[in-house]
Specification:
There is one protein chain. The N and C termini lie close together (about 10 Å). Strands 1-2-3 form a three-stranded antiparallel sheet, with no helix packed on it. The relative contact order is 0.25. It is of the alpha+beta class.
Length: about 90
């Protein structure tokens, strides 16, 4: 859950958006075939209608904190597909 709060601070995610994140909603540059040092992480919001506006949106997480990126990637990779990244209510 601590990682979720850190992600909220960096992206402005609402609690409901954070709780609905699944590993397939977090796309690192290398997942997109881009190995550039300037490409942000793309976080797909509302993939299941979980945004306030009721439509899909994205949040971009700029590179700059390698420790946080590594922690997010490790958590994403350890979460089975189809499961919530932060399985709390």
């Amino acid at each position: 859950m601590g990682l979720g709060i850190m992600l909220q601070v960096r992206t402005g995610l609402r609690p409901g958006e954070l709780l609905k994140l699944m590993p397939e909603h977090i796309l690192f540059p290398e997942d997109q075939g881009d190995w550039s040092q300037t490409t942000p992480v793309v976080i797909v919001l509302g993939a299941k209608g979980g945004t306030k506006s009721q439509r899909a949106q994205v949040a971009l997480l700029q590179r700059g904190e390698p420790e946080f990126w590594d922690l997010l990637k490790t958590c994403r990779d350890a979460t089975p597909p189809g499961h919530y990244l932060t399985p709390y209510t």
